[in-house]
Amino acid sequence: MEENNIRTVDKRRFKYIAFLVLVITVVTVIILLQTKDSFFTSPQTPRVTPGLPAPNIILPGLDGKMIGSRNYKGRVVFLNIWATWCPTCREEMPSMERLYQELKGKDFEILAISIDASGANAVAPFMRKYGLSFPALLDPQGTIRGLYGVTGVPESFIINREGIVKKVVIGPIDWAAPEAVRFFRDLIQRP
C-alpha cells in the first residue's frame, strides 16, 4: 500500500514538472514570436546620415507621373517625409511653402514625400487646403522608411548639388527662419 502511495506521489511530481516545463516552453515561444523581427530578420536599413550619398527614390507625384530624386542632381533638394495626420507636419508646412517661394527656380527643390496610406485621396485636398505648391510625392507603402532609415514624421534630409546628404532634421522647424534660409542659400551658392 505504501508503495502505491509513493508511485502516486512520483506520478504527481512528474506531471507537475512536465506541466512546468510546458508552461516555460510556451512562454519562451510567445516571447520569441513577439520579438521575431529582432531575432530572425536582418536589422533595419542603416540610417542615412550627413556625408552619405542620398539614395534615389522614385515615387509618383499627385499627377501620377513618376519622379526620381536623382532627377534633381545639380540642385539642392529638401526631402521632407510627412503625413497629413501628423500635427507637427501641418505645423511646419507653411514655413516650407515660404522657403519654397523664396528659393524656387534657384537650383532648389522641395520634394515632400507623404506616407499617407490613402495616397492622393488624402494628400491632394491637404495641399489645396494649406495652399502648398511644392511637389508632393506619394509613398503609401512607406518605401522611404527602409531606404532612408526614417524613424517618424516629420523628418527632413537636405541634399547638396552632388547628391550628398548635408543635414538630417528630425521633427518640425521653422524652415523660413533667417538661419534656415541662409543655410539653403549657402548650399545653393556653392559650386
Can you walk me through this structure?
This protein has 191 residues and is of the alpha/beta class. It has two domains: 2-40; 58-189, Glutaredoxin (3-Layer(aba) Sandwich), CATH 3.40.30. It is 43% helix and 18% strand. It has helices spanning 2-34, 36-40, 87-103, 120-129, 143-148, 178-189; strands spanning 58-60, 66-68, 76-82, 108-114, 136-138, 155-159, 165-170. Strands 5-4-3-6-7 form a five-stranded mixed β-sheet. The chain has a two-stranded antiparallel sheet with strand order 1-2. Helix 4 (120-129) links the parallel strand 4 and strand 5. Residues 35-44 have low confidence and may be disordered.
Molecular shape: elongated
Q: Give unreliable regions as ranges.
A: 35-44
What order do the strands of the largest sheet run in, or round the barrel if closed?
5-4-3-6-7
Q: What percentage of residues falls in helices of 4 or more residues? A: 40-55%
Strand content: 15-25%
SSE arrangement:
Elements: H1 2-34, H2 36-40, E1 58-60, E2 66-68, E3 76-82, H3 87-103, E4 108-114, H4 120-129, E5 136-138, H5 143-148, E6 155-159, E7 165-170, H6 178-189
Parallel strand pairs: 3-4, 4-5
Antiparallel strand pairs: 1-2, 3-6, 6-7
Outline of the structure:
It is built from six helices and seven strands. The radius of gyration is 27 Å and the shape is elongated. The chain has 191 residues and is α/β, with parallel strands linked by helices.
Give keywords.
191 residues, alpha/beta, Glutaredoxin, 2 domains, five-stranded mixed β-sheet, two-stranded antiparallel sheet, 6 helices, elongated
